[in-house]
Amino acid sequence: MSYPQTNSLLAKVNIRYLRPSFWLQCVFILLLALVLFGPIMNLLIWTVTESWYFPHALPSQWGFKYWQQVFNPYSDVSGSLFTSLLIAVLTVVVCLIVSIPAGYALSKRSMPFRIFWMLLFLIPQAFPNLTVYMNIARLFYDFGLNGTLLGVIIVHSVHGLMFSIWISVAAFSSTDPMLERASRNLGAGPFYTFFHIVLPQAAPGLIASSIFVFLESLDEFTGTFFVGSPNITTLPLLLYTASMEGNYQIASITALILLVPSILFMVIIHKFMKPEMLSKLGK
Amino acid sequence: MCWLLEVNMRQTTSPNLLKHRLWLIVPAALMVGIFFLYPLGFSLYSAITLDDGGFTLSHLNKAFDLYSKDILFTIIIVLVSVAILAVLSITIAALITLSPFRSLTKTLGFLYRLPLFIPFIVTAQMMRTFLAKNGLMNNAFVASGLLTPMDTVSFLGWSGIIITFVWKQLAFSTLLISGAMAALDESQIRAARNLGASRLSILFQIILPQITSTLGVAMVLSIVTMMSVLSVPLMIGTGSPTMMTADMAFRINSYGDYHVANALGLVSYCICAGLAWFYLRQNLKEKGAN
Asked: Which of A40, A177, A187, A272 has the greatest number of CB atoms lying within 10 Å of its CB?
């Protein structure tokens, strides 16, 4: 770690790096990295494995055979990838339609029972939701919604509502009320004002909330397991079935497909949070 | 201009507009009401009533008869995971806040967030292969000479469930806790340092007492998450005992027995409520003591 430093602090820095706590922390970080990357590595290896039996430390045969199988246009994977994306996009649409007005209304402090409403939308995240899903499935069965796209979208939307409403409340709260008032005073109607003045200001927050809802929907398993099966197969359900059948290659490739948006978003978030992180570090 | 503003402000607080704004919330509130609160209420109702609507405790009794072992197992798993989670995330957050080595904290800050958006189902699949008898973990131990191939054991089971939960939830709870630590008044820490306090005593005497509420929130949310995840116990937990979530799914899929499944659900609510209550009481006690 003693890379060349040209400034006069060199001596001081070197003394600090010789302290045992530095090495202790290095070891801790190294262990953490191993623990975090180990499972991911294992997943990656399985995606390019053709056969891997017990005492072998690594696969005995490598190859992309299963990738061809997965990306065959007639495979289950492409079908459920399409279903997953369709459901996720429609869920985002539903969440936006419902949460933009609610978020706008709740961003005003004068809203009666504001705390109550905010807590109401927190509830779907604050209860163990498995029980709720199985009862929704039972209710949906009576209405013929079980195993339909609409049923799954409803379940995902309720689950994502907390993110979309809480984030859009924050987004609308950060808009400048004087601009809105000025627009009204200059004679613009409430709808014109909302769409041309308020909404553009809140757009970044709304996009963030949409990304959250999209990811939540893409990754949702439990609700789809009860409400969607057997007709709707999303990627998580396909992954589960493949894994339970011992078909680890297909399961791993599916998992990798699910990982891509997650990691992408992580990197974006990390980029956004960098300045905040630096200030966090005290300097 | 001034009177215009005044008129406008009066307008925004007039009851007519307030009603108008309440109307904006109605669709969202209806969605939560119909598709969450109603099934939630229904599950509670179904747990304690017979098919004809009479009150009964027989479902709860049956749930305890059949699954008391699993209920206990669930509580133990959740508590152990939360304990490990608390220790690890405090350690990481404290390192980030207090460590003098900037390059290390930067690495750490990136590392711990890695699992933040990795879905539970993907985590479960990774761990299913990683922790298995011929998984990468055991293979690494064998390759490094720590174990022979015959000594390896599969971690799929209770320990695997705990590892998976901790692995996945670590990012979330550390994010909350290090956020709380970053929000603390830095002059306190600097003052303590100047007065000669060690970093460890700063952590225990200055930082931790101020972030207990955030720690509590992070832990309660993690508990709720662990109690509702179905994929991990199904994919990692093998055989019996298993977690209650797996039992509920089994009860429904194999028997269509909603009463006992809902009774188990009721028990899981009670566990969550109990743990949340414990946290609240502890919090209040501390506030009272100060």
From this structure: A40
CB contact under 8 A, B234 and A99: no
Q: What secondary structure does DSSP assign to A65-119, as a single string?
A: HHHHHHHSTTSHHHHHHHHHHHHHHHHHHHHHHHHHHHHHHHTSTT-TTHHHHHH
Rounded mean pLDDT, A76-101: 91
Lowest mean pLDDT among A252-261, B96-105, B220-229: B96-105
Query: Alpha helix locations (H) across B99-157?
Result: 102-112, 120-130, 136-143
Query: Which tokens sit at A98?
Result: 């419902």
AA identity, residue B159: S
- Minimum distance, in Å, between the CA of residue B287 and any CA atom of chain A: 23
Question: Does the beta carbon of B269 lie under 8 angstroms from any beta carbon of chain A?
Answer: yes
Rg (CA), chain A: 25
What ipTM, to 2 d.p.?
0.80
For chain A, domains (ranges, CATH) are 10-67 (no CATH), 75-280 (1.10.3720.10)
What the block records as the tokens of B245 is 């979530």
B241 prior amide bond cis, ω within 30: yes
Check if CATH label 1.10.3720.10 holds for domain B71-117+156-289: yes
pTM recorded for the entire structure: 0.83
Q: How far apart are CA A93 and CA A96, in angstroms?
A: 5
> To probe the interface with B, which of A49, A125, A131, A143 has the most B CB atoms within 10 Å?
A131
Which residue of A106, A277, A281 is in closest CB contact with B25?
A106
Q: What angle do CA B179, A260, A133 make, to 5 degrees?
A: 75
Which H helix or E strand runs over A50?
strand A49-51
Chain B residues whose beta carbon lies within 8 Å of the beta carbon of residue A125: 221, 224
Residue B1 has pLDDT above 50, yes or no: no
pLDDT at B289: 54
**Nearest to residue A78, comparing CAs of A254, A202, A223, A244?**
A254
Structure tokens of A103? Answer: 């978020």
